[in-house]
Amino acid sequence: MTTARYTSDLTDKQWELLEPTFHPLPVTGRRRKYSYREILNGCFYVVRTGCQWRNLPKDLPPWSIVYTYYRNWIQSDFWIRLHERLRQQVRYAAGRKLKPSAAILDSQSVKSTESSETRGFDAGKKVNGIKRHLAVDTLGLVLLVMVTAASTQDRQAAYSFLPLLFRSFGSIQLVWADAGYAGQLVEFVRRQFRRCLQIVKAIAPGRGFQVQPKRWIVERTFGWLGRYRRLSKNYERKTDTAEAVVYISMTHLMLRRLAK
Asked: What is the domain-level CATH number for residue 112?
């Protein structure tokens, strides 16, 4: 049994879930110095703690090696495929069908560092940075992520985001969203995709906090992702990396759930 050094390290049970994803090591040739498990531990450490790549602890593989795998896996869509497989396992364990039939849509504006290539000012939230557009299933598991400048309106981004969602998940028939997506977008979805975009209206003002139907699910997901400090601010230069960090964080969350 391997003892975890950090809270982000993969446990033996979690690694058992991931090990079949990787090809067996060759018998001949030069032996691998750093295992896939240790490289993953390095990636999860950065995402969980929010540290710089160059500040990876010395008992993990060198940062340059971990970062090279991290970038290669982004470019090859490895993180997305791994995330997809684990999400299906979580849904199966919860007694749900592997493919979702409904989704909840929302966005989150986040401040960016000066290195970000995509950046804008969200006048409503008073945030200069990016906006994460997120679609989750009814369990709160991430289905799709798209990153734009924070100045992009939710409704405007949805014209690009929803076609991607329906193309990736043809089983989805219903999408819930807040009033920021109301208007001609509802008719666009009905006419172009024969799907239903249902706007969740705010509950009449009353005493105390009131939970909006279905909308709380995606807000809870943002809360889950908030535990990963790399997501507290956008430190990434490119949008594909900013999207990958969300998938990696959710992958780590699902591993912990499956390995309980």
From this structure: 3.30.420.10
Query: Is 15 inside any structural domain?
Result: no
Distance CA 33, CA 199 (A): 53
pLDDT values of the chain reduced to their tens digit, one per residue, 260 residues = 666 789 999 999 999 999 999 877 666 777 778 999 999 999 999 999 999 999 999 999 999 999 999 999 999 999 999 999 999 999 999 999 999 999 999 999 999 998 889 899 999 889 999 999 999 999 999 999 999 999 999 999 999 999 999 999 999 999 999 989 999 999 999 999 999 999 988 766 665 656 667 889 999 999 999 999 999 999 999 999 999 999 999 999 999 999 98
Task: Give one DSSP letter per residue of 145-193, joined into a string.
Answer: EEEEETTS-HHHHHHHHHHHHHHH-TT--EEEE-GGG-SHHHHHHHHHH
Alpha carbons 178 and 200: distance in angstroms, whole number? 5
Query: Range of 160's domain?
Result: 99-234
- Residue 120's identity, in one-letter code, is G
Q: How far apart are CA 68 and CA 199, in angstroms?
A: 42
DSSP one-letter code for 131: E
The token duo for 97 is 């069908």
Q: Residue 42 domain-assigned?
A: no
The answer to whether the CB of 150 falls within 8 A of the CB of 129 is yes
Cα separation values, 97 from 91, 137, 190, 196, Å: 7, 11, 24, 20
Dihedral-angle region of residue 77 (phi above 0 means left; psi in -120 to 50 means alpha; beta otherwise): left
Residue type, 118: T
**39 within some domain:** no
